[in-house]
Design brief:
- By secondary structure, the chain is mainly beta.
- Helices cover about 0% and strands about 75% of the residues.
- It has no helices and 4 strands.
- It has a 4-stranded antiparallel sheet, with no helix packed on it.
- The protein is rod-shaped.
Length: about 70
Amino acid sequence: MERWSLYAYDTYEVMPSKLWFTTGFSYDSVIFPENFRQIPINANEAKAHQLGPKAALVWNAREDVTMRLAYS
């Protein structure tokens, strides 16, 4: 089995000390035996790839209140 991942994010300050927006993505690639759940395992390989968007919003409404919203 072989797996590798790539993550990239960036945060933007929309309103100084009040509102931040984070956006990014993750990419995953997996190579694995076709029948890894059965014995005997054969030499044929299967591949899976996934690109996942990410987003988050952080709002510091007051000094003692922070709201967070995230999508992944």
